[in-house]
Design a protein that fits this description.
mainly beta; six-stranded antiparallel β-sheet; five-stranded antiparallel β-sheet
Amino acid sequence: MPAFESVVTAEGALVSSLSWSHTAAGADRLGIVDACIKPDTTTVSSGAWGTGNALTFVASAVMSDDNEMWRRIAPPASAQTVSLTFSAQAEGVTGASRNYTGADQTTPLGTAATATGTSLTPSVTVTSAAGELVIDTSGFDNDVLSTPGTGQTERYDFGGSVSMRGSDEAGAASVVMDHALGGTANDWQIVGVSIKPVAEAGGGPVAYAPNRNIQINYGGTFAGAGRGVFGRDRRPRGRWGSLRAARVI
């Protein structure tokens, strides 16, 4: 399953762009960049994670503010400037960049879901699957206390004139990303999407060295008798099934 690695946040007022430094690490990286902008008519026109590494738009949700999510596959594993340029001067803006590891490097995200409302319970339902990781970004019109829903891990909590929160949760067929707000009913907007895990290679011979562990994934129903051991240079005896993937670990 994809895993959270790091996060950096920034804010600005009366600005036409916003930038900050982020050092990503780990294998099969996926950079996620979130922004919440006031007024809602101002949007992100472009962004980058380092020189020449343009961001790709994921989704946006607009209520009193404009909440946007962008992505970058394989951001450099070094200190880089994350930058956002706006369509007009922003009265206020908050930005956040997250790095996740173990993400598919071809099609890293599923279908994004968005929602808006005025209440104390912002939420969005995201289509996902076991082994994936659901992420969200949500924005609120005022600086309010918020608590992420059950099973969610909060990754940033940015207050101020433009409040924004971000969290993640293990994937399932359908995952509700929600937050409980304090105070009175508030305008909110939320974007959620599922990160897909890096695909395992399979379908051909597996080269390995002696005394190395072999991870073997079988599909279908096993048949036959006997006892087998998965591990060093051994195969399950008397077991049959279709081989999905195998790798040296």
